Amino acid sequence: MIKWLDKQIGPTLATVVTALDGEINWLYKLISNGNTRLKNKHQQAIFQYKQEKEKERKGDENG
Q1: If DSSP codes are grouped into helix, strand and coil, which group holds residue 25?
Q2: Inter-residue contact 27 to 33 (CB < 8 Å)
Q3: What's the CA gap between 33 and 25, in Å, rounded?
């Protein structure tokens, strides 16, 4: 997901933040508003990502 964001909207975000002299409060509001619109597929992606990270963490502890 992060790779997609970097490739698809990274330059646009950089443009907006630069134009706003580094102000990012609008971005936090955008994220907060988006969080209220998450659909089941988004929730599933979050769950899957967290499970994969937990498996990696446990693997690191054991190895």
Answers
A1: helix
A2: no
A3: 12
Copy the structure tokens of residue 47.
């769950």
Query: Tokens standing for 55?
Result: 């498996």
The tokens describing 18, both together, are 């630069």
Residue 27, number of CB atoms within 10 A of its CB = 13
Is residue 50 within 8 A of residue 58, CB to CB? The reply is no
The per-residue pLDDT for 61 is 83
Task: Residue count of the chain, please give it.
Answer: 63
Q: What is the pLDDT of residue 63?
A: 67
Instruction: State yes or no: pLDDT of 60 exceeds 90.
Output: no
Q: Is 61 helix (H, G, I), strand (E, B) or coil?
A: helix
Please, what is the Cα angle at 7 between 2 and 12, to 5 degrees?
105
Contact in structure between 24 and 17 (CB atoms under 8 Å)? yes
